[in-house]
Specification:
alpha/beta; TIM Barrel; Lyase, Ornithine Decarboxylase, Chain A, domain 1; 14-stranded mixed β-sheet; 8-stranded parallel β-sheet; 17 helices; 24 strands
Length: about 525
């Protein structure tokens, strides 16, 4: 009937996932509308505790999940809240307050989401980890939005479950005894900071690698306890590194002697270091002729430093046309690292394979592999086993209807061939959208359909052609890139003549990162 059709058209798509966002007053908000049953609460609470980083926890939960206010429902909620150490439970539902005695923590109950917002105390939220477990309705979505930190409407969504699947794919091709070091430098290639490191620590990855000491220090402040290797350690950062138990890449005799002095001054002993071998990249590292002297220097400093790993970088592992050179590098590294390892009176871990070499050269796997771009869903070829983890989204700010005689943007670069409907979108080159993507070079997705960029990209916005897309309204979501074919980061990188690393690390820090679970 027409009435049924109207109801169906009014239905809103559910997110079907958990979203982790920065909240007001120093809080973090885990929003879960993924399942309308109390059994999914246990999963959501577990995710909250993993993300809490020592914060007290608040649970905001609605009886809408159960569609009825029953003692059994609230008793189960109380049991799960108690088991998870929840400090405060804020319940929503008419008559729900009669079940307050079931809880062993602070509780308050409200009839509606708006009533909760009016009665919310600052201490319920401030500096806490908050789980919002409510139905996906406009009232509850508005309540959740009020708890979130206001920021730029452009967001980078990072799918932690996709990242976990990518991690497990690489684990599946390795021997169970092969260790993994995950690369989280440059804010995890632009995807986020401590949130990804926390997930990797929970997943049992053996070590993390950052570019600079301050990145490692920030992770330590966020509760990351696993080994962290600093790949571009400079002398001035050595004292801080020892204080924060960050492990340096040592690539020269100068860096070795300077770090030994820093360890001595700190009163530390047998501090773990990572020796870099130049096997053909010719960027940083000890060469084969340096090894005898290096052995002597390490013996002299054995009271203060201990070699944890010996590693190298392969220059062409992702280039099938240069496999001969890659194999030469692997063999050279094997010979040099074996010579050094044999001279040390303890076992040393060896590694030279990153994501591409891990798949392509079994002989390069050694004791450990480094997982970088593959963790984030990209490989040297389009690997269907991997899922890109990042989706960059913006919003339609304004819609304009233009005659074919008009032009769009700076320099009148947007020439129109017909009457055109344009949407101004809340992302520009200051957000990391490369200016070379303008004038039709790149298309965004609106309602799942391609909308090419019109004219030049501005600092804070750009314009797209939505003439052939029905029903677009101001405030609608625009997908800049995503895992969708034709809209992927590697598609954008190919268009720009660069690599996905550069595209991802160019996303500005003013773009808010949101971490989702499916």
């Amino acid at each position: 009937s027409q009435d049924v059709q109207q109801r169906v058209s009014a239905l809103r798509p559910m997110a079907m996932r958990m979203e982790l966002k920065e909240g007001v007053n120093g809080s973090i908000i885990l929003n879960d509308s993924s399942n309308a049953d109390v059994n999914s609460l246990a999963i959501a609470l577990d995710a909250l505790l993993r993300s809490a980083e020592g914060r007290d926890c608040t649970l905001i939960i609605s009886d809408e999940l159960h569609r009825a206010t029953t003692a059994d429902y609230w008793r189960r909620v109380a049991q799960l809240a108690s088991r998870s150490g929840i400090r405060t439970v804020l319940g929503i539902g008419a008559g729900a307050d009669q079940f307050a005695d079931l809880f062993d923590c602070q509780t308050r109950f409200y009839a509606t989401p708006d009533e909760l917002l009016s009665g919310l105390y600052p201490e319920d939220i401030a500096n806490r980890a908050v789980l919002v477990k409510c139905a996906s309705t406009p009232d509850f979505e508005r309540m959740s939005h009020n708890l979130e930190q206001r920021s730029h409407t452009t967001v980078l969504e990072v799918n932690l479950d996709a990242m976990r699947r990518n991690l497990n794919y690489y684990r599946s091709i390795l021997s169970p005894s092969t260790m993994l070091m995950a690369m989280v430098k440059a804010s995890s290639y632009g995807n986020g900071r401590h949130e990804i490191a926390q997930m990797l620590q929970n997943e049992g990855v053996d070590a993390l690698a950052v570019a600079f000491a301050d990145e490692g220090t920030a992770l330590r402040r966020r509760g990351i306890t696993m080994p962290i290797v600093v790949l571009n350690a400079d002398t001035n950062s050595f004292p801080v590194m020892v204080t924060d138990r960050l492990e340096p890449e040592i690539y020269s005799f100068t860096s070795l002697s300077d770090f030994v002095e820093a360890v001595k001054r700190a009163g530390a002993y047998r501090y773990p270091i990572h020796i870099k071998i130049d096997s053909g990249m010719h960027r940083l590292g000890f060469e084969e002729r340096d090894i005898p002297q290096l052995i002597t220097e390490l013996e002299r400093a054995s009271q203060y430093v201990r070699v944890a790993t010996i590693f190298s970088h392969l220059a062409t592992a992702d280039d099938t046309e240069q496999d001969d050179f890659s194999r030469e590098q692997i063999a050279r590294y094997d010979a040099i690292s074996s010579q050094l390892a044999a001279a040390l009176p303890y076992r040393v871990i060896r590694h030279t394979a990153a994501s591409a070499a891990m798949e392509r050269f079994e002989e390069a796997r050694f004791d450990m592999c480094r997982l970088g771009l593959g963790l984030y869903g990209f490989d040297y070829y389009r690997n269907d086993a991997l899922t890109p983890v990042a989706t960059l989204k913006a919003r339609v700010v304004q819609i304009k209807r233009l005659d074919e005689t008009e032009t769009v943007g700076y320099g009148r670069a947007g020439k129109l061939a017909r009457k055109t409907v344009t949407a101004t979108v809340s992302i520009g080159y200051a957000d990391g959208l490369n200016r070379r993507l303008g004038c039709g070079a790149w298309s965004m997705l609106v309602h799942g359909q391609q909308a090419p960029i019109v004219g030049r990209i501005c600092m804070d916005c750009c314009m797209i052609d939505i003439t052939d897309i029905d029903g677009v309204r101001e405030g609608d979501e625009v997908t800049v890139f995503s895992p969708t074919d034709g809209n992927r980061v590697d598609d954008m990188a190919a268009l720009l003549g660069t690599i996905p690393y550069e595209v991802m690390t160019s996303i500005s820090t003013r773009v808010k990162r949101i971490f989702i679970r499916e």
